[in-house]
Amino acid sequence: MLNPCRTERFISVFIEGKVKKQMRRAESDLGMKQLMAAGIGLMGCIGLLMGCTEVVVPGAMAGGGEYYRYTTSNIAKETLMGDVRDVMTAARSALKKMDIRLHSVTPYTDETVMFASTPELDITINIVPISASTTQVIVDAREDHIIKKDKATADEILSQMRIALARNDLPPEAISKVFVKNNCRHPIYVAIRFLAGKDEPEHWQTRGWFTLTSGQKKHIADTPNRYIYFYAETRLQDKIYWGGENFHWFEGKRFGFFKADFNSASEDLTQSFSCD
Mean pLDDT, to the nearest integer, of 3-7? Predict the structure, then answer.
């Protein structure tokens, strides 16, 4: 005759063993999913470094039932017929036509970088001279500053640039005349740092000293850029100066220039200096 207590204990041990086995299997399955997710993440990182175009992560691993697709390197790139100046003018024309705001143009030794934006995108256009008549353009439109990129917009910018170059109807680049005015009761001496390029390739240039007597207004530069840097001073015993935190070398010394944003280009730009 079976002992009821022993039988109950045997059943309890048997059930407990089954539960533990199921728990170990569940933990193993969970560990495998985590391992797979980590592997996919690692492959995504490697792919990002190697220039893969996208990383696909199963939504089930993120708690959903769909796939999430992130574009990582869909940058539009093309070599266009035209010198750097014509291609830059075509880029300005394309951005204006697409209602994209151009913020700055920065020339470097081997390329020129244009930065623009929309409410959703940060756009960088790298313009690299290949020869006297060909120029490479690289357009990067980022949606979230880090990974996601909008290749459709980048492609459209290139398309509009091609159209502008093919039509050969590029509008003349807007060149603004820069004036300074002395509203101070003392003579002042002004230095300016600006993007030059009226009759030459665009490059940053510093000029000075421009002497202005009280009430005088003087034309000191021409530029296609909305950003201009100024430094000014009097040469009194108690010197008055107008400066900022943008330091540049001029005549063997470092001066702190202040940045003026004229917002939109016009024919005449005037920076005034007051003593009061």
Answer: 52
User: For position 23, what pLDDT does the model report?
Assistant: 57
- CATH number, residue 262: 2.60.40
Domains: count for the chain: 2
Tokens coding 192: 């300016």
Domain that holds residue 98: 76-167
Closest listed residue to residue 70, CA positions, set 147, 126, 17: 147
pLDDT digits (tens, 9 = 90+) for 128-155: 999 888 899 999 988 765 566 778 898 9
Is 97 inside any structural domain? yes
SS3 of the chain: CCCHHHHHHHHHHHHHHHHHHHHHHHHHHHHHHHHHHHHHHHHHHHHHHHCCCEEEEEHHHHCCCCEEEEECCCCEEEEEECCHHHHHHHHHHHHHHCCCEEEEEEECCCCEEEEEECCCCEEEEEEEECCCCEEEEEEEEECCCCCCECHHHHHHHHHHHHHHHHHCCCCCCCCEEEEEEECCCCCEEEEEEEEECCCCCCEEEEEEEEEECCCCEEEEEEECCCEEEEEEECCCCCCCEECCCEEEEECCEEEEEEEEECCCCCCEEEEEECCC
What does the pLDDT average to over 243-251?
91
For 114-130, write each residue's pLDDT tens digit: 999 998 889 999 999 99
Q: Which two tokens stand for residue 190?
A: 């002004």
CATH of residue 158's domain is 3.30.160.110
Residue 3 falls inside a structural domain = no
- Stated pTM of the model: 0.46
Which is more confident, 242 or 172? 242
Last residue of a domain, one of 108, 142, 167: 167
Residue with tokens 């266009």: 80
